[in-house]
Amino acid sequence: MPSTIAARLIAAGITLPKVAAPAGNYVPTVRSGSTLYVSGQIPFWEGRAQFVGIAGGTLSLAEAREAARVVGLNIVAQVNAALEGDLDRVVQCLKLGGFVRSAPGFTEQAQVLNGASDLMVEIFGERGTHTRAAIGVSDLPRGVVVEIDAIFEIAG
Q: What pTM does this model have?
């Protein structure tokens, strides 16, 4: 019988991507006591960066928001790997920190990050609610539109 979170993923038709290897001298997650830190993730899917562009420029708000959802899936995949497939050990998503590659005058960074925030609540329910920062920047790795890191409280 699948765990509660695994059953929720199946019911929602959500498939987690394969975890991406780090692109530099860092690790994807670090655990300190009951806190799990997840390194910044980008919209990387099927071996390549997706959603290359600028929110409010070459990409619409809807496209940038979808990119944030993809990043959220990558975050959950990293958490799943760190917890050896037991997402029910997530006590709380504590914080998401997001960077949005933005055109001058674009002020909807919070709306972009809702793509990832809504996903956390969809997957974890009340345990997916979190604090957050959404910051506009001029450039991001590989030219993607969004990068997000995360902090989770975990059990066991």
A: 0.96
